[in-house]
Design a protein that fits this description.
There is one protein chain. Strand 8 and strand 9 form a beta hairpin. Helix 4 packs across helix 5. The strands form 3 sheets. This protein has a 5-stranded mixed β-sheet, with helices on both faces. The protein has a two-stranded antiparallel sheet with strand order 1-3. By secondary structure, the protein is α/β, with parallel strands linked by helices. The protein has one domain: Uracil-DNA Glycosylase, subunit E, CATH 3.40.470.10. The chain is built from 7 helices and 9 strands. It is globular. The longest helix has 17 residues.
Length: 219
């Protein structure tokens, strides 16, 4: 897959960046996604302040529900509830960024079915890897669901030859400590979509993971 990657200068890399200007997909080779819903965060981010990357699954069925869009997007609404459950009140995407958290998705296009193929996750992990490189001061990565976990493992295999998160049920392995290079990695559950609002046990675990990640750089 050919990635659309712009060279990042040192001066620009350590300061304000707009992710959509630096990473993206040029060829859209994946057959099981909706490219009409392709999106990379198109916001100005102070890369120096980002200490946590939260990686969700894919872009929403309606792009107006994407995290950084206006008028109370649904993906942000459930994410804000997750932060509230963790003890952090946020009312906008800017509030989340001010906490030092950058939210993105493992898959930049929309889903066409319930699951996403391994090949698509592997393809899009190349974009995610370059996106993560925009934030050199990150201390924690929150992997929100199986797709994000798989994407992170593809990245790790390319860079180190081994996966970061072992196989197994998330609720069984999430209490262990995992690292990608020197960054702590938290396997967790998906914080977007209607199912988030009804799965109370997963909501509790998501809140615990968010709180633990934020604690890393506030201690």
């Amino acid at each position: 897959m050919k990635l659309l990657i712009t060279r990042i200068t040192t001066a620009r890399r350590y300061g304000d960046v707009r992710p959509s200007e630096f990473v993206g997909c040029a060829e859209f080779p994946c057959a099981d996604v909706n490219t009409d819903r392709y999106v990379v965060p198109d916001i100005e981010v102070d890369s120096d302040r980002i200490k946590i990357i939260m990686i969700s699954e894919a872009s929403p069925p309606d792009l107006r529900d994407y995290f950084y869009f206006e008028n109370d997007p649904f993906y942000f609404k459930t994410t804000a509830q997750a932060f509230e459950d963790a003890g952090f009140s946020v009312y906008s995407a800017k509030d989340v960024l001010d906490l030092g958290v950058y939210i993105t998705t493992a898959i930049k296009c929309g889903k066409t079915g319930y699951s996403i193929s391994s090949k698509t996750i592997e393809n899009c992990s190349g974009i995610l890897e370059k996106e993560m490189e925009l934030f050199p001061r990150v201390k924690a990565i929150l992997l929100m669901g199986d797709t994000a976990i798989k994407a992170m493992n593809y990245i790790a295999r390319r860079t180190s030859g081994k996966r970061v998160i072992p196989s197994g049920s998330t609720y069984k392995i999430r209490k262990n400590t995992f690292f990608y290079k020197e960054t702590t990695v938290f396997p967790s559950y998906l914080q977007t979509g209607k199912s988030y609002l009804i799965e109370k046990s997963k909501r509790k675990m998501i809140a615990e993971d968010i709180k633990a990640a934020l604690t890393i750089f506030t201690e």
